[in-house]
# Entry
Amino acid sequence: MTEPLLQLTDVHTHIGPYHILQGVTCDIPTGSLTMLLGRNGAGKTTTLRTIMGLWRASSGKIRFDGRDITTCSTPSIAQAGIAYVPESMAIFTDLTVRENIVLAARSGPVDSARLDWMLGLFPALKRFWNLPAGNLSGGQKQMLAIARAIAEPRRLLLVDEPTKGLAPVMVRSMIEAFRALKAAGETILLVEQNFYAASALGDNVLVMDDGRIVHSGAMSDLVADQVLQQRLLGLSLDAHQ
# Structure
């Protein structure tokens, strides 16, 4: 079997006196979109931030593309090819859309073919190209945050709740954009609370509870099992249609 692109083994993370991750073990296969689901406070965001080195793992091991990155700095993890889109989006609202993209491409100007591809994913960004990013709607800001993450080729995208607070029409646009990213062969680990979006996108699923992975498998199997949905997440897909 092919070695996973990302592998967490018994990862623990403490934030101050709080023991947030309590032995997270999971694999992220290359070329897949893996959903990370769980109730509020389960440890999903902490998992992403620990992978990026923004919070340091207390113990355990994180391997990326065969390399141990557990103790690496965040800049070095980013340079290895991991991009992170936080829930806050972290765009520069006073800068134009174009300037946000330029700043994200640290190795030089964005290749014109890649820029055309990005703007094809998110057409709204082209319309607002020379306007301050602060003028964008919430959904458009989320699109810009993702576009910044892929301004340069990346090996892995970590995305935290991209559809949170978006209107249904924007959720559908986001789903289509992620489908296109999947079709392009991107490897994505995506935290999502919208189970409808998760079911539409996920190849694989990890479910967290109380700082641990309590379920892993094919997303299609979870979608087909309402009893399992209710037990793991306290919801069912029918309630989110």
Observations:
- The first helix runs from residue 44 to 51.
- The longest strand covers residues 18-28.
- Residues 14 and 20 are 6 Å apart (CA to CA).
- Confidence is low (pLDDT under 50) at residues 236-241.
